[in-house]
Amino acid sequence: MRTPSLAELPPHDAIWLEVDLGLQRLVVWRGEEAEKEYAISSGRAGAGQRQGSGQTPLGWHYVRAAIGDGLPPGTVFRGRRPTGEIFDQALASAHPERDWILTRILWLCGLERGFNRGGDRDSQRRYIYLHGTPPGEPMGTAASHGCIRLRDAALLEIFDLAVPGTPVWVHE
Question: What is the domain extent for residue 167?
């Protein structure tokens, strides 16, 4: 899929994602029509672009890569690779320090040079994802390390729609 230019956003006839940090929700749009809405959890440290900030970056992005197709829900990822583990409470108890990345990864790349692309403000180099999270983690409140967390069921639905190249607008 071709990466959209900023002049083409939002698309008028294709799927795109809106992430509203203020409302802690993700909306799937088809052109100008909202199709579905999901609760999210974004960066506990708020919104921001800088490397190491723990903040969720703003602006226009696109899905750079979709990782995990065909793997079972609860698959644990480290470094964007499945570990062979499936998340459960015993695993969580054995590794309480982990920031769990589960089920699927939609890896974001910024479209705005100098804002969310390039230098120490590069969303892709910051490894900013939409990803699954354990069922006990809160939704609707900012609690992540900068990524956008979703429940597995929501992520699986979005994953099937948001193929690589899909635009994603993140705002407050």
Answer: 11-171
